[in-house]
Amino acid sequence: MDQQFKRQLNSRDRKIVELEAKLQHAYQIIENLQQQNIEFQRQLEELNHGEKQASHFLKNSIYVSYPQTLHHLKKPNIAKQPSNLSQIKELIKLSKFQFSKLSPLQLYGIISLAVIVIVSLLFIYLLFLQRVKNQKHETTNNSSVQPSQVILHKTNPPNFPTNINTQIPFIHQPDVSNQSVNLPLESSSQFAKTDSDLTYNVKIPPQFQASEELDSHINRILDYVKEKNLPTQSFSITLIDLNKNTISGYQQDSPRYPASVVKLFWMTILEAKIKQGLIPFTYTIISDLKAMILKSDNDAASRIVDLISGTYSYEKKLNNEQFQTWKQQRQLLNYFFQNAGYQDINVSQKTYPIFYLKVTEPKGADLQLRGENSNHPRRNKITTFHAARLMYEIFTHQAVGAKYSEQMINLLTRDLHPEALKLQPLNPGEFNPVENFLGESLATDADQLVFASKAGWTTASRQEVAYVATKDGKTRYIIAIFAEDPAYAASPNVFPDISRLVFEGMRNAK
């Protein structure tokens, strides 16, 4: 991943240099035009002697629209004006004896109009180059598929567009012109006072009953894992039957690194702050939210973490006082869930690489937050029960509020049809939230299913939490799996096989 990231950066840097060279050339063209315009003005002064003949010439040949002659002149055809400097020069050369009869004011007007047209075209071209340059910031370290056309509930929540094109480039920082979120360090305590008491609204964890039936599914999964010679000590799973309100799991209270599953939690905090009016619900924020969930985009996720925590990723380390203030801000993300019963959860650290910051790992304050000891870093930690609980509360419309849960459901729901998957371009990291994950083996039943998930993947781990339901409602369950071992990361079959085992068992249960 690091080598690939470096190659991408080198390629991007080369493109930037080429674009900057083109921009410099364009600036030189504009400067040349300005110099030639000055030369035209000098030539105009030599044409003063033909002013009397110009009046007769205008009446019998060409027509130019000027205020003093509007009563007898035709409106010029702008579309036929010369489009570049060479054409202007040729026109002057061919009609020198005619132009010599024009007044300086009239001739200067014609030339100025042509120059304005040329400069306007160059300006549009420069804007296009700048837009291409900005597109280097849109990255796709994780690719995804679009939400399923089968939505669990038919009503769209108010003020939440579902047809936004997520392929547009995203700006570096969300549009928060109406809300001071990313404050300087010396002012961050003021921001903390505004929402430090904001916590997740579901204060009491859901109460589920133990189930021998679900225990049997978990045991079959563990047998499969052992059969494949995969380690069980680094494996956790939670399984919840929504129809029977039952639960089973294996090491489901063990905190593990969640990779991109953490973005499910950042989305929930963002929705809560939007609901409280602490963050405006803008087009840019919606775009970043969709990129973070649909494509698991780390750049978009980085901007959202900055937005919901009031922090930036500083390249250099902060002094102790600054870092403590910065750390307190970032840890508000943990307090949001900890105060609602999500014990020992850590969701305060960004996911990498982040292309627009040109980093493959934490630097500056983010590195201080992780800790200097690379052998024992402080990383994001979530249990499979945490992930399953949040998914459960979203799909029971409790998370943040009913309409906000619906918004999150729309983003998490995925189309498993093979035709839809083929339309999704794979990113260079070869990450796809369905392929090699829980949804892949369920594609054959796509017409009968509603499937929603958030997956994570690194070279050393594989994680996912998913909601699976048949459209008739007879089977509805949530499954969360965290596997912290390179063997799971490298296996393309383990998650699809486990998913199929669970689905067959749950569908055939009485």
Tell me what you see in this structure:
The protein is an alpha+beta fold. The chain has helices at 2-45, 51-60, 85-94, 96-99, 104-134, 188-195, 212-227, 263-275, 283-294, 298-309, 320-330, 332-338, 364-370, 384-395, 402-412, 418-422, 486-490, 494-508; strands at residues 209-210, 235-241, 246-250, 413-414, 449-458, 461-470, 476-483. Strands 1-3-2-7-6-5-4 form a 7-stranded mixed beta sheet, with helices on both faces. 36% of the residues are buried. The model is unreliable at 49-84 and 136-194 (pLDDT under 50).
Keywords:
510 residues, 7-stranded mixed β-sheet, Beta-lactamase, alpha+beta, 46% helix, 18 helices, globular
How far the N terminus sits from the C terminus, by CA atoms, comes to: 46 Å
Mean pLDDT: 76
Biggest sheet: strand arrangement: 1-3-2-7-6-5-4
Sheet-strand content, in percent, reads 5-15%
Q: Structural class given helices, strands, pairing?
A: alpha+beta
Low-pLDDT regions: 49-84, 136-194
Q: Can you say what the CATH homologous superfamily of the largest domain is?
A: DD-peptidase/beta-lactamase superfamily
- CATH top level of the largest domain? Alpha Beta
The third-level CATH topology of the largest domain is Beta-lactamase
Number of domains: 2
Number of helical runs?
18
Along the chain, the helix and strand elements come as HHHHHHEHEEHHHHHHHHEHEEEHH
Radius of gyration: 31 Å
Shape: globular
Largest sheet, if any?
7 strands, mixed
The level of helicity is 40-55%
Number of strands: 7
In CATH, the architecture of the largest domain is 3-Layer(aba) Sandwich
